[in-house]
């Protein structure tokens, strides 16, 4: 059975950001997210200049930057507009509602000011989503729930994944999709973002497990591949980003 294109799926998304992501992917012909796991702002800026035109999403771990400033987050949003990508802060919120609400807005990072999307563990139950949505929804942000992880021997069970999907269904305006290794439900409005992607299916020394772009996007039918070290540790990040972008688009196009 043929699948709908990203462009066609925009109409099924209930959240305005999700619609924009589907349309950007369709227009830019990119389903690549760069996981910019570097520890200095300058290195991150260099990576954006090298890879920005090839990605639909920039994924950050802002708490690993040694020299983060408020001005840097403003630069990030300017570059996101210039190069046309969305910013995903991989914060993995996991606490009670009252706490995550403050973590989302306050502290050093003020994540709600600059990140288009964030993610959260479903473990604490629906209160975590209600709380984050109070901050994010009026600002047209989106939330991804962690339905699966790429790490070896993680404790997520099939039942946990199913319950995560049921929880997402209670918040169709704010939850835009899942972090997952495979497509999990029929609804074409959800986005599936897959970390643990490289051209060779290996593991790292600390339990990360990789699948190929082809496996994620074609066999497992997810939507966006998240690539970190496959690009940022290569000799030529710009060239590697292009290779992942092309492989990602080819694998998606085969599904249509
Ligand atoms: P890598 O260098 O491509 O292995 O980086 C993967 C990134 O995705 C890294 O930032 C992780 O924190 C993130 N990640 C992951 O690898 N696996 C998961 O299940 C989740 C996030 Br959720």
Descriptive overview:
The chain has 256 residues and is of the alpha/beta class. The protein has one domain: TIM Barrel (Alpha-Beta Barrel), CATH 3.20.20.70. The chain has eleven helices and eight strands. The chain has helices at residues 6-9, 16-28, 41-51, 70-83, 97-105, 111-114, 127-136, 158-169, 213-219, 229-232, 237-255, and strands at 32-35, 57-60, 86-93, 117-121, 142-146, 175-179, 191-194, 224-227. An eight-stranded parallel β-barrel has the order 1-2-3-4-5-6-7-8, surrounded by seven helices. Helix 5 packs parallel to helix 7 and helix 9 packs parallel to helix 11 (237-255). The radius of gyration is 17 Å and the shape is globular. It starts with 5 loop residues before the first helix and ends with a helix. The protein binds 5-bromo-uridine-5'-monophosphate.
């Amino acid at each position: 059975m043929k699948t709908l294109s990203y462009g066609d799926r925009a109409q099924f998304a209930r959240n305005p950001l999700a619609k924009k992501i589907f349309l950007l992917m369709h227009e830019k012909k990119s389903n690549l997210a760069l996981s910019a796991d570097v520890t200095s702002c300058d290195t991150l800026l260099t990576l954006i200049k090298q890879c920005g035109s090839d990605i639909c999403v920039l994924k950050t771990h802002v708490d690993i930057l040694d020299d983060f400033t408020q001005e840097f987050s403003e630069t990030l949003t300017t570059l996101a507009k210039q190069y046309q990508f969305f910013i995903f802060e991989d914060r993995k919120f996991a606490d009670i509602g009252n706490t995550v609400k403050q973590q989302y807005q306050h502290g050093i990072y003020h994540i709600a000011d600059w990140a288009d999307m964030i993610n959260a563990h479903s473990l604490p139950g629906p209160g975590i989503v209600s709380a984050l949505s109070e901050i994010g929804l009026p600002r047209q942000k989106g939330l991804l729930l962690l339905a699966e992880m790429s790490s070896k021997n993680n404790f997520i069970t099939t039942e946990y994944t199913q319950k995560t999907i049921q929880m997402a269904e209670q918040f169709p305006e704010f939850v835009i999709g899942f972090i997952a290794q495979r497509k999990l439900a029929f609804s074409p409005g959800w986005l599936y973002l897959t970390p643990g992607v490289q051209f060779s299916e290996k593991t790292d020394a600390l339990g990360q497990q990789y699948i190929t772009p082809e496996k994620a996007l074609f066999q497992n039918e997810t939507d966006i591949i998240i690539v970190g070290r496959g690009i940022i540790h290569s000799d030529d990040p710009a060239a590697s980003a292009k290779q992942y972008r092309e492989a990602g688009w080819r694998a998606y196009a085969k599904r249509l």
